[in-house]
Design goal:
single chain, about 60 residues, mainly alpha, about 0% strand, rod-shaped
Length: about 60
């Protein structure tokens, strides 16, 4: 077994890759949240419009 001093190499800097991917994931996540909110908005609007239509034509 060798007792020479071992000096590890410098680790690669992945900071920009990490920040870029986190930005992309955040961007996609916000689009998903906006899409779900839009879907809920349309569903609630349609239910409200149907309720108003049925109430107006009740009698």
């Amino acid at each position: 077994m060798s007792h020479e001093k071992f000096t590890p190499k410098e680790a690669p800097n992945y900071t920009m890759a990490f920040l870029t991917m986190m930005g992309a994931i955040t961007f996609i996540g916000l689009w998903i949240i906006a899409g779900l909110f839009g879907w809920a908005w349309v569903w609630i609007s349609a239910a409200t419009a149907e309720f108003a239509y049925r109430r107006a034509n009740r009698g």
